[in-house]
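Write out this protein's structure.
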Amino acid sequence: VIGPNMTDDYWIHGDGSIEAILKVANEGVLDKGMPPWKGVIADDLLEKVSVYIYSIRGSNPAGAKPPQGEKITN
């Protein structure tokens, strides 16, 4: 239950684009407890994870957390 729902149209950090997801993964969000992963996880794996997160948007899994952040439309 750690972290936001990444399957809906609401985002706390960035606009939900692959680039924004990758930026958050690389740089982290220290005030929220997420470390930067650049240099810890290989760049190609971070890119694959970002693409995967982008791909699950709209999947509406059972038991997902409620929306948080701003609604995005891209």
